[in-house]
Amino acid sequence: MDSLQRKDISVVVPLYDEEDSLVELCQWISRVMMEHNFTYEIILVDDGSDDASWHIITQIAEDNPFVRGIRLNRNYGKSAALQTGFLHASGEVVITMDADLQDSPDEIPGLYSMVTEEGYDLVSGWKKKRYDPISKTIPSRLFNFVTQKISGVKLHDFNCGLKAYRKKVIKTLEIYGEMHRYIPLIAKRNGFNHIGEKVVQHRPRKYGKTKFGLERFIFGFLDLLSISFVSKFKKRPMHFFGTLGSFCFLFGLVVTIALIGQKIYNIQHQLTYRNVVDQPMFFLALVAVIVGVQLFMAGFVAEMITMNSGKTDDYLITEKAGYSENKVV
Question: Are residues 214 and 295 in the same domain?
Answer without folding.
Answer: no
